[in-house]
């Protein structure tokens, strides 16, 4: 049995900034391959996409990517989910799907980048995560903390990291 931690990188990649952040996370995990195995949907799907947009690929290609992603959520010991990464300040729906699929069976680390316009999560996302890291350095610390302890220390607990957002209308 391996002592490595399998990490699934759930992230939007719709801008150069997204790509830079995900590549930095991916590279960090690969460079520390004594501790981590990594699955990045973006990296793993490139041989299938072959430079094409998903809409330009066959239904079989899209299904292959989807099935590979879903299978690897189950392979993971930890899902790192970039929750603040969309250009409009809302979490990417693909990341939300991956989080929902992982919930209850794979611990989830929410990642919020310093450049994200949204620095919080709504109730459903904040209750689903096991840890929160704001910024790349804190993300590295959280990943290493999880690898060593198989859980997050109190410094990464969601309660201390999430600011509240607008409350829903409560009257009928």
Could you describe the 3D structure shown?
The protein has helices spanning 16-31, 41-49, 59-75, 93-102, 123-128, 136-149; strands spanning 5-10, 36-39, 78-82, 108-112, 131-134. A 5-stranded parallel β-sheet has the order 2-1-3-4-5, sandwiched between helices. With 172 residues, the protein is an alpha/beta fold. Helix 1 (16-31) links the parallel strand 1 (5-10) and strand 2. It starts with a strand and ends in a 23-residue tail after the last helix. The protein has a single domain (7-160), classed as Rossmann fold (3-Layer(aba) Sandwich).
Number of helices: 6
CATH architecture: 3-Layer(aba) Sandwich
Strand-pairing-aware structural class: alpha/beta
How big a fraction of the residues is strand? 5-15%
Low-confidence stretches: none
Q: Rg, please?
A: 16 Å
Give the SSE order as H and E letters: EHEHHEHEHEH
Largest sheet: 5 strands, parallel
- What is the name of the CATH topology? Rossmann fold
Total count of strands: 5
User: For the residues shown, what is the average pLDDT?
Assistant: 89
Spatial order of the strands in the main sheet? 2-1-3-4-5
Report how far apart the termini are: 55 Å
Helix content: 40-55%
Q: Can you tell me the CATH class?
A: Alpha Beta
Number of domains: 1
General form: globular
List keywords for this structure.
172 residues; alpha/beta; Rossmann fold; 6 helices
